[in-house]
Amino acid sequence: MISLVLEDMTFEQDIRELLMAFYPGEKYIYTDEDSILSLFLSKDSKSYNIKIKSEDNVLEFISPLRETKFDTKNDLKRNIYENLLNLGNADLPWGTLTGIRPTKIVMEMLENNMPLEDIKKHLKDIYLVGDKRIKLCIETAKNEFNILKKVDYKNGYSLYIGIPFCPTRCLYCSFTSYSITQWKKDTDTYIEALCKELIAVSKMYADKKLQTIYMGGGTPTSLEGYQLSKILNVVKNNFDLSNILELTVEAGRPDSITREKLEALKAAGVDRISINPQTMQQKTLDLIGRQHTIKDIYESYRLARDVGFENINMDFIIGLNGETLEDVIDSFTKVKSFDPESITIHSLALKRAARLNTENKREIMDNDLILSMINTATDTCADLGLEPYYLYRQKNMAGNLENIGFSKPGKECLYNILIMEEKQTIIACGAGTSSKIVFGDGRIERIENVKDPKLYIERLDEMIMRKESMHGID
Ligand code: SF4
């Protein structure tokens, strides 16, 4: 337990998130009670006065009030960070950066033609980012920058189609996902509602260029082949696809993939799919409730190649319960034989709604171990000729690290960059989806659809009206 006693709450979230990075999994209280660490903060006309009390140490220091809130905040975070190191904590790979889009900071600097040396210095001096993360962040942002340069994204938009069903619920899942077994007989009704929403959106956005489509979930391939064809035909018959740059479907779970479904996707023009092993260790797959075998991964991948897919992504998670460094080395040795066009590496995020949390199965790994695992994974990507092209972080992430998308040059997923860098309006249809409207001045508004598919079907008109009310003012 960590206690925060703050006289001024302006930077409460920033302080808490920084402490969360040093002490993953701890609970926070706002009274001076028995805890492994207490942070007291008071304020006078010139500075913040801070006291940090650990079990065997007390540190007191000040942090100045600067002219801008930005400078005051970053000074405060740096001062707390350095004092936490004095208590014996190890450096964090991302320093004081706790936001989810570190590449956004670098992208802005690249767009303003800032020299690379100055960007590196900024990341080091202001945020205390470690050298490896500076290199990764700049390399990723440069790739994003060069990809976006070729796309007229400002005049376009993207479409997300949500299929909230999966064969089983994975232990770490915090997405909108309902059992396909329980929903089986009602999926046609869901698809009918989804198609109505898609048609309404196609009319609303008829004057804009649709550039990317991403069907995710859940696991879209939980549906039958004819159902996938139906949705994609509605898209084909109602949207102008002459400006489409990519159409991705998250096949996701190998236990949901069949030749018939892959052929339906191929026939509908899908040019990028994901087949996600998460790990190549059977004991881990069993533990996390994936209910498929390693053989299924090889088989579904072979089928996808056989059907003609030339752009396949594979997702992996680092920090899964019970995995050792040797397991990760073994998984990534096996990945080499697939030679996929892209690999996305996730550091496990401990989300509140996940069964890992609700069933008390959280296992917090040592930060150094997670770092070695991530290094194994990223080295494999480099060996396969894959380059980082998008990156984001989440709260409560194992090792306080990041998720990184690696790809062969030219095989990147543009949708992933557009959503992460918040460069383009993304209209999302289906239960549990969230549309993001990006305005000309950079302002962003979200429109949420209800999560429960049953409620989504019942309240479809309202979901459409929410989108209509926002349309035309962006
Ligand atoms: S496949 Fe993905 S969406 Fe489905 S339960 Fe597992 S983590 Fe959640």
UniProtKB/TrEMBL annotation:
GO BP term, pick one: porphyrin-containing compound biosynthetic process
Entry superkingdom: Bacteria
UniProt keyword terms in alphabetical order: Oxidoreductase
An annotated Gene Ontology molecular function: 4 iron, 4 sulfur cluster binding
Pfam families: Radical_SAM (PF04055)
GO terms for cellular component: cytoplasm
Name this protein carries in UniProt: Coproporphyrinogen dehydrogenase HemZ
InterPro entries per record: Aldolase_TIM, Coproporphyrinogen-III_oxidase, Elp3/MiaA/NifB-like_rSAM, HemZ, rSAM, rSAM_sf
SMART domains the UniProt entry points to: Elp3
Enzyme Commission code(s) on record: 1.3.98.3
